[in-house]
Amino acid sequence: MLERVVCARGWVQRVRDRGATKTLRKEGEKDNGEWGDNEMVRIHAVSRYKEGRKTLGPSTLPLNSFKMVAVLVTGANRGIGLGLVRQLVKEPSVDIVIATARDVGKAVDLKAIDSPKLHLLKLEIVDEKSIAVAEKKFAGIVGDNGLDILINNAGIFNKARLNEQFSKDLVMEQLEVNTVAPLMITNKFYGLLKKAADKKGSAQVANISSMAGSIDFAPVMASHPTPTAIYAMSKTALNMLTVKLSLEWKQDNIRATCFCPGWVKTDMGGDNAMLTLDESTVPLTKLILSLTEDHNGKYFRYDGEKIAW
Ligand SMILES: NC(=O)c1ccc[n+]([C@@H]2O[C@H](COP(=O)([O-])OP(=O)(O)OC[C@H]3O[C@@H](n4cnc5c(N)ncnc54)[C@H](OP(=O)(O)O)[C@@H]3O)[C@@H](O)[C@H]2O)c1
């Protein structure tokens, strides 16, 4: 049997069942030879995602090939989300990376990532219809395997001092993007997270919060020249959502953990930030992929150090 599956960015995968011949190449390129058994299993695994399990009998696959990890990252067209996607596609344990952006057409840096694991989805995180459409499309890609890791990364930083004039809209927008949207997305993806947890033992929600959301840390942040109060409120509430998820979904084996990525050189973090994108997202990706029950309902820096609430 010969399979042909077109993946993200024009890659073509061909799998010959039970034989040793398989190729992973760009469309139009010549076949480039033999692959080892491990690669073959991985190609099979991805093919099975795409083709809805009709390709191979279970007997041809070792058990661990069923532990296929699918990750969704919001706000992946720039900044930390983009950095996380760049790292995730390199991880051997990750099979599918679904990167979302408000405008996929303009997500130039995201589209430049050359990986057959990568799928791009449109998602405006404050729009319930957009979330529903993205969930349906996601389900179409992963099928019965569900969503293993949901990374709620997209966020904004609205700045105003508490003694300045500011509008209610500014505050509501901050809360809508950083707190309400992760809540609505996580709620909508519950079924897919549960599918992955039922099948593979656990699933994970990773909320990208900030040290600014720590009440213990607020006196330290007070000396920061940038006004953080409204942003900080949104992240403190996101932290509470994380704790509530970790308790309410514990019996479903869906965990929730929140993270500070550090002060990172992005559009939000600015040029004076302490960390490059890689300095934050390389360890943060490893940390998210290594989470266990011990991390459930907790708050960590990108390097794994625990943060006080
Ligand atoms: N950078 C830091 O130093 C730092 C520190 C602590 C925490 N964080 C947190 O890390 C996360 C990422 O920050 P960043 O530095 O990468 O910020 P960034 O460079 O400003 O990127 C923000 C991302 O969020 C997306 N986004 C914003 N509103 C959205 C919406 N309504 N729908 C869909 N996507 C939306 C943006 O998409 P568009 O391009 O379409 O706007 C963009 O992809 C945020 O949650 C932030 O609070 C950052």
Automatic annotation (TrEMBL):
InterPro entries per record: Fungal_SecMetab_SDRs (IPR051468), NAD(P)-bd_dom_sf (IPR036291), Sc_DH/Rdtase_CS (IPR020904), SDR_fam (IPR002347)
One Pfam family it belongs to: adh_short
A Gene Ontology cellular-component term: cytoplasm
Keywords: Oxidoreductase
Positions in coiled-coil regions: none
Gene Ontology molecular function: oxidoreductase activity
SUPFAM superfamilies: NAD(P)-binding Rossmann-fold domains
Top-level taxon in the UniProt lineage: Eukaryota
PANTHER family assigned to the protein according to its UniProt record, in alphabetical order: C-FACTOR-RELATED, SHORT-CHAIN DEHYDROGENASE/REDUCTASE
Family: Belongs to the short-chain dehydrogenases/reductases (SDR) family.
Protein's name according to its UniProt entry: Dehydrogenase
The species this protein was found in: Pristionchus mayeri
